[in-house]
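Module 6 notes. Inverse folding takes a fixed backbone as the condition and produces residue identities as the prediction. Think of it as a translation problem where the source language is geometry and the target language is the twenty amino acids. Below is one complete input and output pair. Work through it position by position during the lab.
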């Protein structure tokens, strides 16, 4: 397809773009430009992008830009429990869901207990769709504290079938425990 009645937009010069310009381009209105900038940031492997991406994650004007910053940090191996806590207080559910997805490698490898405890304080005020992702993310963690948090989420599932499904998926292989707990 070719635009016939209007000039084509100028393409950014990615080869000459410095770090600050790539972060700026990762927030561009053009999706291809955003994706290309994010790919170049992640492929660079440079930790120098971390501070700028954290600024975007905390104060980007559009949720898509904050989500992109989360995935940029994750792709660089720099998304930390502190970043997750910050992103999990974002007003937009998509940002909170992305934070839960991005922190999964940390949850399964180093299991930050203080983050799990903090998540437990938020479940009563959280949107059901975010709790669905939390349950799915916790399902990958083989730790008693993670399972206990799943049990705390379960009472809210009566009103949200997708939440019930996600908790049951997360507890797969523990059917006998589920039956015992439900019949108490």
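Target side of the pair, the amino acids:
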């Amino acid at each position: 397809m070719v635009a016939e009645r209007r000039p084509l937009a100028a393409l950014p010069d990615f080869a000459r773009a410095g770090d600050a310009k790539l972060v700026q381009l990762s927030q561009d209105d053009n999706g291809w430009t955003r994706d290309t900038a994010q790919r170049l940031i992640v492929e660079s492997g440079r930790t120098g992008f971390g501070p700028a991406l954290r600024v975007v994650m905390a104060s980007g004007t559009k949720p898509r830009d904050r989500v992109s910053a989360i995935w940029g940090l994750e792709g660089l191996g720099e998304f930390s429990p502190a970043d997750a806590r910050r992103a999990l207080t974002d007003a937009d559910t998509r940002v909170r869901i992305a934070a839960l997805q991005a922190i999964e490698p940390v949850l399964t490898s180093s299991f930050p207990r203080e983050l799990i405890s903090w998540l437990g304080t938020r479940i009563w005020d959280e949107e059901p769709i975010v709790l669905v992702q939390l349950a799915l993310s916790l399902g990958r963690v083989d730790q008693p504290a993670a399972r206990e948090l799943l049990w705390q989420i379960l009472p809210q599932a009566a009103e949200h079938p997708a939440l019930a499904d996600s908790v049951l998926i997360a507890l797969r292989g523990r059917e006998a425990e589920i039956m015992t707990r439900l019949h108490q």
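Reference fact for the lab report: The two ends are 63 Å apart (CA to CA).
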